TrEMBL record:
Ranges of compositional bias, category Polar residues: 1-16
Transmembrane feature ranges: 46-67
Database matches in Gene3D superfamilies: von Willebrand factor, type A domain
Protein name per the record: Uncharacterized protein
Keyword field: Membrane, Transmembrane, Transmembrane helix
Species name: Blastopirellula marina
Region annotation (Disordered) ranges: 1-22
SUPFAM superfamilies: vWA-like
Length: 364
């Protein structure tokens, strides 16, 4: 027994000592061997020896199971819990957008100014609304509409009508003005309800004027037919109730004639020194009045143009006239009221030669 104790005593160097768990198992084995030796000496019965052996075995198993983990295992667990800085850096997400993306989002769409420029229209003298050559009806020299204002008086009329009286409105095109002139095509081509519609809308426009406004009406075909023709007015008239009634009665007497000559009507209108002119037609002028009006815009006078079922080339010329004079162009058509008047009253009388007071410049 003493030899066994001396053998396991801690006389060895620390480098050769067994660990705690192994030492306990060796102690149990040594104790078991000692008990067996004592059992042989004391002549113990077999069941007592078996009991002692089983108790020692159970004790050894319990001690082995409950033995603490070796220090090396504790150190390994502790080491794995430390965060690694490099891994954290790699897991960072970059949500900053690219520079090109920011520039794309911030940049507003740039619209080119050319998209809004009005195209330049080329004048083609060969494109006339009717088959008859225009030079047969034109004077030797073109009328200089701008020359009708040698003292520059018309330039002082610019904006004169702003805020004065009611806004004149013809076929839905409205504008303010004190002195207003209406030029309306009464050529034979204004048929099928066109002329009826023009007369109805003209009467509406005049009735909406205020007494402080002045107006004048000129029809153009083979020549100019001024307000109250054949008892023609020589100057603008006030928009009084009496004059509005006279206009309503006079419009019922209008006939249509051959050709679409507008020079005399335009010249007469400019001499009235208006600040607003409406021109309504269904085609090109047969005396090239539209070209002369385009080439010699008159300062201080706004001109709005309206095309009654016109073809594209004529619409462009009407639009150019309005553009040169600070106005606007609008396509118009036959109204239900115009069609109804045509159905009820029949076609308006027309003249291809001189007959009475109409067609006075047509051959007899």
């Amino acid at each position: 027994m003493s030899e066994q104790s001396n053998h396991v005593s801690p006389n060895h160097s620390p480098a050769t000592q067994p660990d705690g768990g192994k030492a306990r198992r060796l102690g149990v084995m040594a104790g078991l061997a000692g008990w067996l030796k004592l059992a042989g000496v004391w002549n113990m019965p077999a069941w007592a020896v078996s009991l002692v052996v089983h108790c020692l075995g159970v004790t050894a198993l319990v001690m082995a199971t409950l033995a603490p983990l070796p220090p090396s295992q504790k150190l390994n667990l502790t080491a794995t819990e430390e965060p690694v800085a490099e891994e954290l850096v790699e897991m960072q997400l970059d949500f900053e957008p690219e520079l090109e993306e920011l520039e794309f989002q911030a940049a507003a769409p740039q619209l080119k100014a050319e998209a809004f420029e009005t195209p330049q229209l080329e004048v083609d003298p060969n494109m006339l609304g009717e088959a008859i050559a225009a030079d047969q009806f034109m004077p030797a020299q073109q009328a200089d509409f701008a020359g009708l204002d040698p003292n520059g008086l018309m330039s002082e009329l610019s904006g004169m009508g702003d805020g004065i009286g009611n806004a004149a409105k013809f076929f839905g095109t409205g504008a303010s003005g004190k002195r207003i002139c209406f030029l309306v095509d009464n050529s034979i081509s204004m048929s099928g309800g066109r002329m009826e519609t023009a007369l109805i809308e003209l009467e509406k426009a005049v009735r909406k004027l205020s007494p402080t406004q002045e107006f004048f009406i000129i029809f153009y075909s083979d020549t100019a037919y001024p307000l109250f023709y054949p008892e023609s007015a020589t100057k603008m008239v006030d928009a009084t109730g009496e004059n509005k009634q006279r206009v309503s009665e006079w419009l019922e007497t209008i006939h249509v004639c051959n050709f679409t000559n507008g020079r005399e009507a335009i010249t007469m209108a400019l001499k009235m020194e208006p600040d607003l002119i409406y021109i309504l037609g269904d085609g090109a002028f047969t005396d090239a009045a539209d070209y002369a009006l385009i080439e010699t815009p008159t300062p201080g006078i706004t001109i709005h143009t309206l095309g009654m079922h016109v073809k594209a080339s004529d619409a462009r010329r009407f639009s150019t006239i309005a553009e040169k004079h600070g106005g606007s162009y609008r396509d118009v058509g036959i109204t239900p009221q115009g069609s109804e008047r045509l159905r009820k009253n029949g076609p308006i009388p027309y003249h291809k030669k001189r007959e009475g007071i109409w067609g006075i410049k047509l051959p007899g």
